[in-house]
Amino acid sequence: QVQLVESGGGLVQPGGSLRLSCAASGSIFRFNVMAWYRQAPGKQREFVAGITSGGTTNYADSVKGRFTISRDNAKNTVYLQMNSLKPEDTAIYYCNLLLPGPGGDYWGQGTQVIVSS
Predict the structure, then answer these.
(1) pLDDT (tens digit, 9 = 90+) per residue, 14-49?
(2) Which residues are bridge partners to 22 per DSSP?
(3) Fewest 10 Å CB contacts: which of 9, 40, 77, 108?
């Protein structure tokens, strides 16, 4: 079984920074994609950033230049450094792990990020 545990959310003022972490445990195949999604109140869940086990990254246009995704393969942990936060970044942030093959799509429980003065 795979388990994802997120941490690092909280309340921050506009312009501030937060770093989210997601630790994966269980049967983790070495070749995978880890990503962050978010869901704001009343909106659909949307992709934020992703990173392959080889280090290739991808970002949503809305966060490019402000957010940085990284990972520590030895720890099976993915990070999301969020800078220059805006009120519209307020959402529940979810960690996602994608493994090869059917059924290899796992989600964390989510961590709340609130950007407000």
Answers:
(1) 999 999 999 998 877 777 899 999 999 999 999 999
(2) 6, 78
(3) 40
Residue type, 11: L
94 pLDDT more than 90: yes
- C-beta of residue 94 within 8 angstroms of C-beta of residue 5: no
Q: State the Cα–Cα distance between residues 97 and 95, nearest whole angstrom.
A: 7
How would you class 28 by CB atoms within 10 Å of its CB: exposed for 0-12, middle for 13-18, buried for 19 or more? middle
